[in-house]
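Data deposition worksheet. Section B asks for the primary sequence of the deposited chain exactly as it was used as input, without tags or linkers unless they were present during the calculation. Section C holds the resulting structure in C-alpha cell form. Section D is free text for depositor observations; keep each observation to a single sentence. Incomplete worksheets are returned to the depositor.
Section A, Depositor: J.P.
Section B:
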Amino acid sequence: MPARGGSQARRRVLIRRASAGASWTRMAAVAVMLACAGALYGLTNASVLDVRRTAVEGIAFTGRGAVVAALYGESPGEGAAPNVVRFDTAAAAARIAALPAVAGASVRAVLPDRLVVTVRERAPLLVWVTAAERFAVDAEGRLFAAVQEDPPGVDGPLPTVSDERRSAAGLRVGEQLAHTDLLVARQLVAVTPALLGSRARTLEIHVTDNQGYVLDARPTGWSAVFGIYTASTRPPDLVPRQVQCLRSLLADTGEALQRVILAPEGGSCGTYLEP
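Section C:
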C-alpha cells in the first residue's frame, strides 16, 4: 500500500467569530428598547395623565351629573379618575348608553388629562301625562324623561296624551308603554282638526279605565270615544276606520254632534250619546 504523502493538503475548517462591534450594537439596541419600555410604563402610570377634566356634549334631558357618574362607574369620580391612557372608554360609553334618555354615546380620551363624552339622546314623539308626572316618550314607547313643559329642542308643542287610568300612577322614567297603547297613541296624535275637516282649534286625547281612548275637540265641544283596545279582540288597526267614520259624522252633522262612540260595524259608524 502506498503511503500517503505528508504533503497532502489538509482540509481547514474556518470558524467565524462574532465581532465585538456587532455584539455591542445588539446590546445597545436591547438597552434602548428596555429604556423605552420603562419610559412608556412610567408615562402611562404618571399622575400627570390622570383624568382631571370632563367634557359632555349633546345632553338636554340627561343631567351632567348622571353622565359623569356613569362615565366613571365605580371609579372615585372626576378629578380622581384612572390614567387617561388606560381608561376603558368603550365600557364607559356602554354605561352611559344605559341611561334612560340616552340612545347612544361615545367617549374619547384627549391627552394629557381630558375625557370627551358625546351623547345622542332619544327624540320625543309625544308627552304622556299622569296625575303625578309628565313623561317624554320616544317612537319606541320609552318613557325616557320627566318634563315640566315642552321638551327642549323641539319645534312647537308636542302632542299630549292624558292617562287617567289607575295603572298610570305606577309609571316611572325608564319604563315602556304597553305595545297596544303605543300603537293607538301614535295614530291618534297624528289626527288633526284639518284631517277631520273640523273647526276645532285643538284635539285633546285622554284615556280612562271605563271608556278607553277619547278625543275631545276644543272649543267646539264634541267628544269621540275610540274605546279600549286589545291585541286580539279589538286591535289598534281599527283606528283608521274610526277616524274615517268620525270625519263623515262631522261632515254630516256640521259638528252638531255632542258625543259619539266610534264602533264601526257594517255600514254603521257609531252610537250617539248625550253629553
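Section D:
Residues 194 and 200 are 9 Å apart (CA to CA).
The longest strand covers residues 102-110.
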